[in-house]
Design a protein that fits this description.
Distance between the termini: 19 Å
Helix content: 25-40%
Structural class: alpha/beta
Strand order of the largest sheet: 3-2-1-9-10-11
CATH superfamily: Metal-dependent hydrolases
CATH class: Alpha Beta
């Protein structure tokens, strides 16, 4: 099963031009089996996304891309989140205490919003976003190296804000992932692999 695990919808991510309907249409065309909306410091789309998912029968998971004091962290499985920036470890602990999962987003991307070397300091992360659609190869290679060194799970995501980048990177799961509980279990169990789109999806080897 293939999921794009980091996407921005225009209602709560002002830097995106994508509507949820457009995202689902493109995702289906590319062969994705589900998508994840992870807006900037917001989960405001959750109610509408759940309703649209039921209506279309297409899995849509809503998480958050939280801008911690050390960098962006994607989280799933929480209903609320801190109303101000906190340090990365505090946020990881917050999510973990609520039985959610955390993923380091684009840790080495050159926008000063990744955890970078802080990956070596924090504990409790579940995975690293090895493939990110807006990240250069050198940063991808570093993310892969740190993921292997730390023994964390590896995922891929488009980080899309415009139509052409929907699904350019994704995460492959060997089994069905159709509920938030299944997503959390699979990521925790490291049952995932980054994938990239080139006419079809291909697994990225760490």
């Amino acid at each position: 099963m293939l999921l794009d695990m980091h996407m921005h919808e225009k209602t709560y991510s002002p830097d995106s031009v994508l509507s949820l309907e457009e995202m689902v249409t493109i995702a289906r065309e590319k062969g994705l089996d589900g998508i994840c909306i992870t807006d900037h410091d917001s989960m405001g789309l959750k109610g509408y996304a759940e309703e649209f998912s039921r209506k279309t029968g297409f899995p849509i998971f809503v998480g958050i891309e939280f801008f911690s004091l050390q960098g962006d962290i994607v989280a799933f499985g929480i209903d609320e989140y801190p109303d101000h920036r906190v340090d990365a470890q505090t946020f990881i602990n917050y999510v973990r205490a609520r039985d959610g999962i955390t993923i380091s987003a684009h840790p080495f991307r050159n926008n000063q919003r990744g955890l970078k070397e802080h990956l070596l300091e924090v504990t409790g992360l579940d995975a690293v976003e090895v493939l990110n659609g807006s990240t250069l190869p050198d940063a991808t290679s570093l993310a892969a190296q740190y993921t292997a060194k730390l023994g964390l799970g590896a995922v891929g995501a488009s980080d899309c804000h415009v139509p052409r980048t929907v699904g350019i990177c994704a995460t492959w799961f060997p089994g069905e992932v159709r509920s938030m509980q299944e997503l959390i279990r699979a990521v925790r169990a490291k049952e995932s692999a980054p994938a990239y789109y080139s006419g079809a999806y291909h697994i990225y080897e760490l």
